[in-house]
Write a structure and sequence with these properties.
This protein is 31% helix and 24% strand. It is α/β, with parallel strands linked by helices. A hairpin with a 5-residue loop joins strand 20 and strand 21. The relative contact order is 0.13. The structure holds NADPH dihydro-nicotinamide-adenine-dinucleotide phosphate. NADPH dihydro-nicotinamide-adenine-dinucleotide phosphate binds next to helix 6 and strand 17.
Length: 450
Amino acid sequence: MTNYDYDLFVIGAGSGGVRAARMAADCGARVAIAEQRSLGGTCINAGCVPKKLFVYASQFRADFAAAPGFGWTMDQPGFDWPSLMTAKNREVERLHAVYNKLLQTSGVTVLSGKAKVLDAHTVEVNGKAYRSERTLIATGGRPVTPDIRGKELVVTSNDLFSLEKLPDSIVIVGGGYIAVEFAGILHGLGVKTTVCNRDDKILNGFDDDIRDFLAEAMVRQGITILFNTEIKSVEKADAGYVLRLADGSTLQAGLVMYAIGRTPNSGGLGLEALDVELDEHHAIKVNEQYQSSAQSVYAIGDVTDRVKLTPVAIAEGVALAQVLYGKSAKPVDYDHIPTAIFCQPPVSTVGLTEAQARAEFKEIDIYKTVFKPMKNALSGLDEKTLMKMVVERNTDRVLGMHMVGEDAAEMMQGFAVAMRAGATKAVFDSTIGIHPSAAEEWVTLRASPS
Ligand code: NDP
């Protein structure tokens, strides 16, 4: 027996940390987990979960607009932000209790407070030192704030989850996941929304057709997108804020939100004492088994700044617990990770973009369709759906699938399985569709490839 209090001390009870702690404990390890805020980390408290609830809330605008086309009559619907916040907070609190119960059931010691690493085998929480054979850093990340004059006046996605009053108008700076998701939410809830993007397209890294199609759809709905825009400063004005742009023009808004990326929470943990190596973005560098340059310290999830997605952090937590304490260690396969952006209409994608496929393979075929979803035959809405498939000509293997349109995320989860199984275009072609659905378009993509 060692003189350790724990086999594994996890710092950070977000998605990855909680899963690693539970899995390690279920394998028989003695585990503690420390959290300075609320259980569940970004996903539960200021990310995936409350964001999706906000998305549902905002979608009612389009549903109300569509309803008369299906015979409904109604009075002018009203919306109350505090009621939504109360309901959202209730659900988040329910999830805190669920997380706590799951940890307790697995026998994990839950400590509330800021943890600091004192040496290779000691972690301090609330002035008490705990000895542990290994330490896992799963502290996630936080929104980047801009380095401009007036930066103290802007908010980030974190603040939106506790906002007391909706502004009349908002400028959202950035063109990634969070910017387009919040643009959809706020526009849907009646806020005049402007997105300031520094390039000529939103959603860097996604397929170009998806980027253009989504931007056009957002603009058609009434969201303003300003491309090639650089903000120089933000100032307080009588009613809200004034943004000064690099081209000399100004913008006014009731609120200014920055969504320009997230940075790892690697500071203030005492890691310097152990010479834990960080990269130039302050992410903890780890090897294939999530071990840092300090032998007893491991890291998973957003603090390693690799694939910043909740399910990836969870998979890493499982893999690490299995490597250290389990019987069936399997590394995470980072290929074919599906992803969705819960903008409106939503985007989902798995595999290579057309540009990536062209760079990697000699010959590829592109199959594409744009159609009006059946619901919009009567809804009066002119929103269309885009589906795009990238296929390697020689092998017929499907390399990438990209979609903008309702239920994109729900569809892409299943297609990611097919792609991981090596599905060819012929397999898609021989699959019978489900009628009437939008998904059946994926198995009837017969148009001659471009
Ligand atoms: P992203 O990395 O997705 O996008 C950042 C955006 O900000 C880009 O458009 C980027 O432009 C722009 N940008 C960066 N620096 C500046 C600057 N100084 N001034 C103006 N614009 C700037 O970050 P997000 O904050 O949107 O999200 C962080 C991560 O969180 C995502 O990448 C994703 O991994 C995860 N996430 C996942 C979600 C999901 O799964 N649905 C939802 C929300 C977040 P450029 O492209 O030119 O660099």
